[in-house]
Amino acid sequence: MKSVYTSEDIKNLNPSKDLGLPGEYPYTRGIHKTMYQGRLWTMRQFSGFATPRETNQRYKFLLARGQTGLSVAFDMPTLMGFDADHPKSLGEVGHCGVNVSHLKDMEILFDGIPMKTVSTSMTINSPAPMIWAMYMATAEKQGAKLAELRGTLQNDILKEYIAQKEFIFPPEPSLKLVVDTIEFAAKHLPEWNPVSVSGYHIREAGSTAAQELAFTLADGFAYVEASLARGMEVDEFAPRLSFFFDCHNNFFEEIAKFRAARRIWARHMKEKYKAKSERSLWLRFHTQTAGCTLTSQQPENNIVRVAYQAMAAVFGGTQSLHTNSLDETLGLPTERAVHIALRTQQILAHETKVPEVADPLGGSYYVEALTNQMEEEAEDYFKRIAEEGGVIESIKNGFFQREISKAAYQQQKALDAKEEIIVGVNDFVDESDKKVDVLEIHPEFEEEQKKTIAEVRRSRDNNAVKKSLDAIQSAAKKEENVMPAILEATKAYVTLGEMIDALKEVYGEYREPVVF
Predict the structure, then answer these.
(1) Terminal C-alpha separation, the chain
(2) Is 458 exposed, middle or buried (0-12, 13-18, 19+ CB in 10 A)?
(3) Residue 256 belongs to what H/E stretch?
(4) DSSP class of residue 74?
(5) Which pLDDT score, from 0 to 100, does residue 249 have?
(6) Which uninterrupted H or E stretch holds 247?
(7) How far is CA 91 from CA 76, 95, 139, in A?
(8) In this predicted model, which residue has the larger pLDDT, 80 or 512?
(9) In the predicted model, what is the mean pLDDT of residues 138-152?
(10) Residue 288 contacts by C-beta under 8 Å, 6 or more apart in sequence?
């Protein structure tokens, strides 16, 4: 990106086309006319650790202190589709999130939390259909109807191949499973976002802001095209697609990224995919402050970084926000650290008066120039992805991975040469760093989860389990929507790992080729 801009950089700016007003196409300035004057963004603190019981207490702690939505972090065994008692889960249960292996775990996780009224986001991808089914079944047990549930399923499998690498099945059947959830949500959960197309992990892997923007939107368009190929109408599902972006340290660049994203999405949905509903044109997104910018050195500096990033996200028009805790580079957040992170959002919302103005930087020559440049770079990447054969082929041939690796290498070179400064790391180093407390995950948590799953296996109807697994495999082989079968299996207390293993027999497992 250029480092200096003048008014000459936007001499071709068309205010009517490129700016307009908030709430007007192409929504550069926001999808609502009044933005936060009418309603503040949802404050979600990404949280999960140890057992469902422990995490349930953290959720109640946060809700009691003003958090307005839940965001569930799962541990690595859950993310990879392994039960708590699987050999590969040993030593990992509850360490990077909460462990959920079956319906009983989900029931404990949301015990005493009104799922009918609380909006819940769940960061789960390959096993998303199973975890979502557990959430639905638990809500129904509480007396909620599926149509009443509000929340978001991350469920963005394409970015797993690009960046995060928590995939299980090959890309084609994995994409099919995502479309199954989109179709099921359109029919039964009209208030639910079945996919949160995620640039966050792409950025955390080392991409530039422009790459995050382009690759995320390319994935979003791939989901649109796959859903259309299923026979769905665009306005049937597009209003419930959502996005998830990183917010890094370059304040104005991040704001421009969000503004460009809205404009690009609206234009493509209207002109290419012929969407008629205004809501289909809206790019609604959640933002998380950048985990990769946090430092273990002088960790209290992270509070300041997070505050600036949060303000950039709000200036950019986010609908939902997570603020990282100061200690997340050392471990899962402590109660004190997550409390500070939540208060950071509340101070921004209620003390700065920033929410009183929609798109306050709209019309700034610098921000408009950055927004235009972001859009141009994204469109250039769309052309390159098309030349590679589309998103799936770009994954298989390593295009995305190579582009991100190059960007990460250039960033590290700049840090090594001190062309870019990270306070406390490559300059302003203080040898007397203050240590902070770290949350410890005790071994007994894993043993507790193993005992729970053993009890579930003993008490359930195993004939119903077998029938349920057969139904899942039958639906998969016939290329039917597997969600109804998975939901019924969940209610029979079939475990996550059992359902994943059943699908592995049909779909196989993916091994990433060496492409560099």
Answers:
(1) 26
(2) exposed
(3) helix 251-271
(4) B
(5) 97
(6) strand 241-247
(7) 10, 8, 30
(8) 80
(9) 97
(10) 46, 200, 244, 245, 246, 247, 321, 322, 324
R_g of the chain computed on alpha carbons: 22
> What are the φ/ψ torsions at residue 275 (nearest 5 degrees)?
-65, 140
- List strand residue ranges (DSSP E) for 85-229, in order: 120-123, 151-153, 192-193, 195-198
Q: Are 432 and 298 in contact (CB under 8 A)?
A: no
In 3D space, the residue among 129, 103, 73 whose CA is nearest the CA of residue 291 turns out to be 73
Confidence of residue 2 (pLDDT cuts 50, 70, 90): low
* Cα–Cα distance measured from residue 219 to residue 208, given in angstroms and rounded to the nearest whole number: 16
Computed over every residue of the chain, the mean pLDDT equals 94
Distances, alpha carbon 62 to alpha carbons 46, 50, 156, 236, 449, in Å:
11, 17, 27, 35, 24
- Distance CA(394)–CA(384), nearest Å, equals 9
Q: Which amino acid belongs to residue 320?
A: S
Tokens standing for residue 421: 């400064």
Q: Which strand ranges, in their side-by-side order, compose the sheet holding 320-322?
A: 192-193, 151-153, 120-123, 69-73, 42-47, 320-322, 285-289, 241-247, 195-198
